[in-house]
Specification:
It is built from 8 helices and 4 strands; from the N terminus they run H-H-E-E-H-E-E-H-H-H-H-H. It is of the alpha+beta class. It has a domain of 93 residues: 3-Layer(aba) Sandwich (His-Me finger endonuclease fold), CATH 3.40.1800. The strands form 2 sheets. Strands 1-2 form a two-stranded antiparallel sheet. The termini are close together.
Length: 220
Amino acid sequence: MRPINFSGSNLDFVQAYDGINHKVWNATTGPMVALRAAIRDHYTNEQCFKCAYCRQVKREVHGLSWDVEHIIAKSVHPRFLFEPENLALACKECNLSKSNKEVLTVRLGDKSPYPRAQDSFCIIHPHYDRYSDHMDISILSGKVLFIPKNKHKGRETFDMCNLVRFSYEYGGWDSFNYGLTKEISEFLKNCPKNATPQKISELLGFLNTTVDSDFAEEAS
């Protein structure tokens, strides 16, 4: 994902920022309004309308659906308020769950530069990590399930962003295995008795449930 490149009046505003008062972010008038809109527009396109953490697609472009996300919380390290690689777009639900929780595995001093090593973060970093290396997203019968691939970044992102909410809200069955078994049973019940192996293979294609969760630039 390409970080935003500030220019013109937006660059002037960023360069004038004192690195301390992160509350300038919340201004409802003046240059901050246009700057927030530019950041939102940039990362909406870069992320292909996918949330940085749950990777669910929302085609809306306004702030009622999306929050500009500070990966390292702006209240914790305000000097990174406009750091392009600390910015991304997150859905309201993920951003609210993540809040200002600790995402770093390293301790930063007051003048430490922005950490750019992957292992400096305990969650999936939208600029530095390939999401599919740490998390699988499966969809079956319209139901979404997140499956962490490891106990560090995958599990931490799952917990910090409350991705279990998808299982609670859309699950409708005891487990994903139960849902998969149910789908196969329904298929076998309705499968024509004279179906060829090729036709059966084609019909079973829907059971490949893992979806592409990476941004377009990561997958290329």
